[in-house]
Amino acid sequence: MGLTFALARTAATALALGSAVGCMDFGGLDEKVELGTNVADWRDQVIYQVLVDRFEDGDLGNDFNVDRSAQARWHGGDWAGLESRLDYIAGLGVTALWISPAYRNVETDADVDGYHGYWPQDFTAPNPHFGDVMALRSLVRAAHERGIAVVLDVVTNHIGQLFYYDINLNGHADDQVRGGGENSPVLHINEHDPDFDPRGVQAETSLGEAGPAPVMWKRDPLTNHMPPRPAVLERPEMYNRRGRTLDFEDPDQLLHGDFPGGLKDLDTTRCEVKEAMVDAYARWVELTDLDGFRIDTVKHVEREFWRYFTQKVRQRLAEQGKKNFFMFGESFDGRAELVGAYTKSELPSDEQLARENACVTDGRGITGDQLDSVFHFPQYYTAIRDVFQLGLSTDRIEVLWNERDKYYGLTAPELGTGIPPLSALVNFIDNHDVPRFLYSASPAALHLALLFVMTEEGVPCVYYGTEQRLSGGNDPANREDMWLTGFDTEAPTYQYLARLGALRKRHAALRKGTQRVTWASSRSGDEPDAGVFAFERTGGDAGDSYALVVVNSNAAHESSPAYEGAPMKVGAAPGTVLVDVLAASGASYTVGPGGEVAITLEPLTGALLVPESQR
């Protein structure tokens, strides 16, 4: 496609989809579909994350501005392509599909494209690169026919770089350099992305400061730098307008600063913003029958917003028959006390609650409920990185697990999934924001980490291409084109993951059993138990289903869960024969009279043991 034609087509699309003011614009396809509850228990699910632009190109008609020679450009994947590969996804044992944002995004900015979806421009219109609403409906319907739920990635914290701060009041977006560097300091001011100012970004002339810098909307349809939709978001007071976050440990900057790169921070304490986000995203569900939201940049938004957003979305969808709608958030942080705070049901002060209820127009007051779950980033750092990639001691996992009930919600939100957040944490190995696991570890270590996340308490999440051993580093290298793998269902990691999925489905203990550590080691050298971690799952909603998982994360030698004469002891009855359902040999181990189990594992291997009667 020629450049001139591509740009013309982009401009025409922008004009067509940017014409609505203050209403949802789905190209006339605005009839609601019948909503249903497609997931009975989210603990039964295995989530598969997909960046739509990088998975499969099924419609060449929307391949405008595609440049596959550069990793940070549009590559052409779309909803039709993803639908064409649902059988491949289902073959993995996947039961839930997380797709990247669906709304209209900034096309390109500073020579980087918005293929990922995190630069919102119009929350009410579909991204023309991915298809129209009918294409998304078709994808969701086809997924449901295969028993796969669909989760949509959503952003509420910010919009794309759609305005600049007119600091020098000249009506243009300037990149200023002031001072000579000899008798005065050199000062660089970028009006698209100025430094944080707690007062708000200030205008300034040669005579001094001149009050708050005006917000100036950009109007470039070729790059889709256009005023945002819905139209209420064109009002400057809907934004915090304090400039770029420099210190993420400063609460003011964390919550009120623009995200680096000029992403403008919405004032999510305002009723108008809360209402706009609930209406826009609930509408996506009503038009397509989605089953959940993955929510971006949670820690950059006030908890009062999450109380309002989650409760009002649940209420609106439940009235239409959509129950068990799963909302889990991304707080890119290793501190459990911070990450878990968004899952706790805690009422604020009476004064704060009164202020929050001033936004309520339906008579249903705000409670303390928030998200159903969050990504288990603390475990990503503590277990996936430290233990499975770096080979550090496994006792750090036990410490992390023992502290979970202090930091995560212990009661299920009203009208939520019915599962306490503590039991539904989303466990992952890698994703689009961190280097792929194989960038710094071996395939054997990958298989061990997959065994861990597919059998521990919570909801496992697999990043697309992990099953084909993609190994890219940091963004955008970790966002490879999936079609280049050939979607090989005979690939060894595809086969291994499918096997784990089948075992997880077969054994209720791996989905719903309570969890107890049976061995963790503080040693990581030559000691005989270095690298061993073991836990058992049974009881709870799993009844008498039982499983014992043992892994050896040590890459140098075989290890056993025993040290200085002390063996591992489990809760299975003495005399129970446990069979390793992962091993081709079907090796078995008998529980001793004191509950002891003796097992030796080769480097970077694991065992999944179940009673012989349950195999």
What is the element layout, followed by pairings?
Elements: H1 3-17, E1 47-50, H2 79-84, H3 86-90, E2 96-99, E3 103-105, E4 108-109, E5 112-113, E6 120-126, H4 133-145, E7 149-154, E8 163-165, E9 175-178, E10 187-190, E11 202-205, E12 208-212, E13 215-217, H5 251-256, H6 271-288, E14 292-295, H7 303-318, E15 326-329, H8 336-339, H9 350-357, E16 373-374, H10 377-389, H11 395-402, H12 404-407, E17 426-428, H13 443-455, E18 459-463, H14 492-506, H15 509-512, E19 514-520, E20 532-538, E21 546-552, E22 562-563, E23 566-569, E24 577-580, E25 588-590, E26 596-597, E27 605-611
Parallel strand pairs: 1-2, 1-18, 2-7, 7-14, 14-15, 15-16, 17-18
Antiparallel strand pairs: 3-6, 4-5, 8-13, 9-10, 11-12, 19-20, 20-21, 21-27, 22-23, 23-26, 24-25, 24-27
